[in-house]
From TrEMBL, chain A:
The keyword Cell wall biogenesis/degradation does not apply. Keywords: Cell membrane, Membrane, Transmembrane, Transmembrane helix. It is a multi-pass membrane protein. The keyword Transmembrane helix applies. InterPro entries: ABC_transp_permease. It is found in: Cell membrane. Pfam families: BPD_transp_2 (PF02653). The chain crosses the membrane at residues 9-32, 52-70, 82-98, 104-127, 139-160, 180-204, 235-255, 275-296. One of its GO terms (cellular component) is plasma membrane. GO terms for molecular function: transmembrane transporter activity. This is ABC transporter permease.
From TrEMBL, chain B:
This is ABC transporter permease. It is found in: Cell membrane. GO terms for cellular component: plasma membrane. The keyword DNA-binding does not apply. The lineage of its organism: Bacteria, Pseudomonadati, Spirochaetota, Spirochaetia, Spirochaetales. Pfam families: BPD_transp_2 (PF02653). It is a multi-pass membrane protein.
Length: 340, 268
C-alpha cells in the first residue's frame, strides 16, 4: 500500500488536484458544485463514461507515439500535423474510393494513411542525420505545413455542401468501427489502442530490439561502443512515432467522427506529448495517463455544464500538471526510481 | 512600410528568444507570451480606457509571469522545453477563461475607440534591437555574464555571482519582447482575436536557429521570412488557394534551415 503512494503518477495526480481545486475556487461562482461535477460527472452514467473512454483512444496512441520518440531521445513536436494527416488521408480516400468497395479497400486506406504519416517523421529524422536540422524544429515545421495542406483538401475539393461546420461528407457506413458500449460512442478503436500499447510495451521490455532501442535512446555513446547502430534506432523511433500519430488520426475518423472536420486534431499532439511525459518510463503507464487526461477533459466539460467555469479549465490544469511532471526536484524528493 | 510591419513582431520575438538562448535555455513559450501581450494590452486598454496604462500594465504582468516561469523552472529543476510547452498551454487556457469571465466571449475583443495607434515607434524599436543586443552582449557586464551563464554555470558560481538571476532575467526579457510584439499586433488590429499570433512565436524560434543564434543572422532570417510572408500575401491576391499559401512560409523556413545547415557542414 505504501508503495502505491510512492508511485510517481499518484504523487503527480495529488499535486495536480490541489491547484485545480484552487482554480475552480477562483473561476467558479459555486466552487463546491463545480468541483463535485468535475470529479463525479464523467462516471455518472454509461453514456458519459463511454465517451470519456472513446476520447482516450486516440490520445493513447498519440501518447504512445510521443513516448517512443522520447525513448529514442528525440522530441516529436509535430504530432498535430501527423494526426491530421492520418485522419485526412483516411477520410479523403474513403470518400474517393467509395465506388470500389472491396475486401482490401479499408486495409489499403489505413496502410496508406499510416505510411504517409510515418514518412513525415522519417523525413525529420533523415534531415537531422543528414543535414543536422534539429528534429524538434523540423517536425514542427512539417506539421504546420501539412496542417495547411490538409485544410486545403478538407475545405476545398472534399467539403460537404450545406453543412454548418467545415467538414467532409461522412465515410461509408461499412467502414465504421463497431460500437462496444451502447448508448455511448465508445468504439472498438479503444480496444485497438489498448492492444497496441500492450504490444509495444511487451516489445520494448522483452525483445533484443526493444532493449537496444532503449539503450541507444539512453546513452548513444555507450550504445555505439557496444556495437549497436544507434542512428537506425533514432530514425526508427521518430518514424514509429509518426505512424502511431497517424493511427490516432485513423481511429478519430473511423471510430469517433466518421468524417474529417477541420481541426480534427484538436490538440491531440500536444496532449499526447504531455501525457507521455506523465507516463514516465513505462509504456504501460501511457494507458493510465491518457485515461486521466480524458477524465480531466470530461470533468471540465461537466463543470462547464453545471456552473460558469469555462472548458479551458482542463487546459490550465494540464499546464500545472506539466510543470509538476517535469520537475526533477519532486523526482529527487519522492521517487527512488525516477520518472524518465 | 508594409514590409517593416510584417517584420517587426518576428524581429522582436526572435531577438527576445536569443537572450534565453545565450543563457543556455530555450524559451518555447514565445507564442504564448505574444498572445498574452496582445490580450492583456487590449483587455486593460478596454477596461481602463487608457492606452498607456494598457501598455504599462500588460508589460508589468508579463514581467511577473516571465519571472515565475523562469524561476520555477530553475527551482523545480524542470526541463525548460516542457515547462515552456506548459506555459504555452496555460496561457491559452487562462486567456480563454479570463476573456469569458470579463467579456462573456471567447472570440474577438474589439477596442471601440476608432483612434489609430501609432506603431512607428515599435517598428523603430524592433529595428534598433538587434544592434542594441550586439552592444549589450559585447560591452556590458550584464551581457557578458549572461553569455557566460550559457557557457558554464560553474564560472559564475566560482566568481560568486548568482547564476539563476541571469537565466531568470533572460526568460523575462524574452517574455517582454514577445509581449511587445503581441502589443504591436494588438495595436495593428485594434482588437484581440484568438490565435492572434498565428504561429509567429514558433517561427521566431525557428528564425533563431536559422540565424545561427546571433543578432545579425536573426535580422537576415527575419528579412528572409518577411519576404516570403509578403510573397504569400501577394499570392493570395492571385488565384492560388490560400491554405497552400499559408503553408509556404513554413516550407521556405525548412528549406532555408536545410541550406544553411548544408553550408555549415562544408565549413566543418
Amino acid at each position: 500500500m505504501n508503495k502505491i503512494f510512492k508511485h510517481p503518477v499518484i504523487i503527480i495526480i495529488i499535486l495536480t488536484i490541489v491547484p485545480s481545486a484552487l482554480l475552480i475556487l477562483i473561476l467558479s461562482s459555486n466552487p463546491i458544485l463545480s468541483f463535485y461535477a468535475f470529479v463525479t460527472g464523467p462516471f455518472s452514467n454509461v453514456y458519459s463514461f463511454g465517451n470519456m473512454l472513446n476520447n482516450a483512444a486516440p490520445l493513447m496512441l498519440t501518447s504512445l507515439g510521443a513516448f517512443i520518440a522520447l525513448k529514442s531521445n528525440s522530441f516529436n513536436l509535430g504530432g498535430e500535423g501527423q494526426v491530421y494527416l492520418g485522419a485526412t488521408i483516411t477520410g479523403i480516400l474513403s470518400i474517393y474510393l467509395n465506388n470500389t468497395i472491396g475486401v482490401f479497400t479499408l486495409p489499403f486506406i489505413i496502410i496508406v494513411a499510416l505510411f504517409t504519416s510515418g514518412i513525415l517523421t522519417w523525413i525529420s529524422a533523415w534531415l537531422e542525420i543528414k543535414y543536422r536540422v534539429n528534429s524538434l524544429i523540423s517536425t514542427y515545421l512539417l506539421s504546420m505545413t501539412i496542417i495547411h495542406i490538409c485544410n486545403y483538401f478538407v475545405t476545398g475539393p472534399f467539403l460537404m455542401e450545406g453543412s454548418n461546420i467545415l467538414t467532409t461528407s461522412k465515410i461509408n457506413k461499412s467502414y465504421y468501427l463497431p460500437k462496444i458500449l451502447e448508448p455511448s460512442a465508445l468504439s472498438a478503436g479503444f480496444l485497438i489502442a489498448l492492444i497496441l500499447v500492450i504490444i509495444i510495451s511487451l516489445y520494448l521490455k522483452n525483445t533484443l530490439w526493444g532493449y537496444e532501442f532503449t539503450i541507444s535512446g539512453k546513452n548513444r555513446v555507450f550504445a555505439e561502443s557496444m556495437g549497436i547502430k544507434s542512428l537506425n534506432y533514432r530514425v526508427a523511433g521518430l518514424t514509429i512515432s509518426g505512424v502511431l500519430h497517424g493511427a490516432a488520426g485513423v481511429i478519430l475518423v473511423l471510430g469517433n467522427h466518421h468524417s474529417v472536420i477541420v481541426g480534427i486534431n484538436n490538440n491531440l499532439g500536444w496532449n499526447g506529448l504531455s501525457s507521455a511525459l506523465l507516463a514516465g518510463s513505462r509504456p504501460i503507464m501511457v494507458i493510465i495517463s491518457s485515461l486521466f487526461y480524458s477524465f480531466l477533459d470530461a470533468g471540465s466539460s461537466y463543470a462547464t455544464i453545471t456552473s460558469d467555469v469555462t472548458i479551458e479549465l482542463s487546459q490550465i490544469i494540464k499546464s500545472v500538471l506539466f510543470f509538476v511532471i517535469s520537475s526533477r526536484l519532486i523526482k529527487d524528493k519522492f521517487i527512488k526510481r525516477g520518472i524518465e | 512600410m508594409d514590409f517593416l510591419q510584417t517584420m517587426a513582431p518576428f524581429l522582436l520575438a526572435s531577438i527576445g528568444g536569443l537572450y534565453t538562448e545565450y543563457s543556455g535555455t530555450t524559451n518555447v513559450a514565445i507564442e504564448g507570451y505574444m498572445t498574452m501581450g496582445a490580450f492583456l494590452f487590449i483587455t486593460i486598454t478596454k477596461v481602463t480606457g487608457s492606452f498607456y496604462l494598457g501598455v504599462f500594465l500588460a508589460l508589468s504582468i508579463i514581467t511577473v509571469l516571465g519571472f515565475l516561469h523562469g524561476f520555477l523552472t530553475i527551482k523545480l529543476k524542470a526541463n525548460p522545453i516542457i515547462t515552456g510547452l506548459a506555459v504555452n498551454m496555460g496561457f491559452f487556457g487562462i486567456i480563454s477563461a479570463l476573456a469569458y469571465k470579463i467579456f462573456r466571449t471567447k472570440g474577438v475583443i474589439l477596442l471601440e475607440n476608432s483612434r489609430e495607434f501609432d506603431t512607428n515607434s515599435i517598428i523603430l524599436l524592433s529595428l534598433l534591437i538587434p544592434f542594441l543586443t550586439i552592444f549589450i552582449m559585447k560591452h556590458t557586464r550584464f551581457g557578458l555574464r549572461l553569455k557566460v551563464r550559457g557557457l558554464s554555470k560553474k564560472t559564475l558560481i566560482y566568481s560568486n555571482i548568482n547564476p539563476d538571476f541571469y537565466r531568470t532575467t533572460a526568460v523575462i526579457v524574452s517574455g517582454l519582447f514577445s509581449g511587445i510584439a503581441g502589443i504591436f499586433l494588438g495595436m495593428e488590429l485594434r482588437s484581440f482575436i484568438p490565435n492572434i499570433s498565428a504561429g509567429r512565436g514558433w517561427i521566431s524560434l525557428v528564425i533563431i536557429y536559422l540565424g545561427r543564434k546571433n543578432p545579425i543572422g536573426i535580422l537576415l532570417g527575419c528579412i528572409l521570412f518577411s519576404v516570403t510572408q509578403m510573397l504569400s500575401n501577394f499570392g493570395q491576391s492571385q488565384d492560388i488557394p490560400s491554405d497552400l499559401i499559408l503553408a509556404s512560409p513554413y516550407i521556405f523556413t525548412l528549406i532555408a534551415l536545410i541550406l544553411t545547415s548544408k553550408s555549415q557542414k562544408q565549413r566543418d
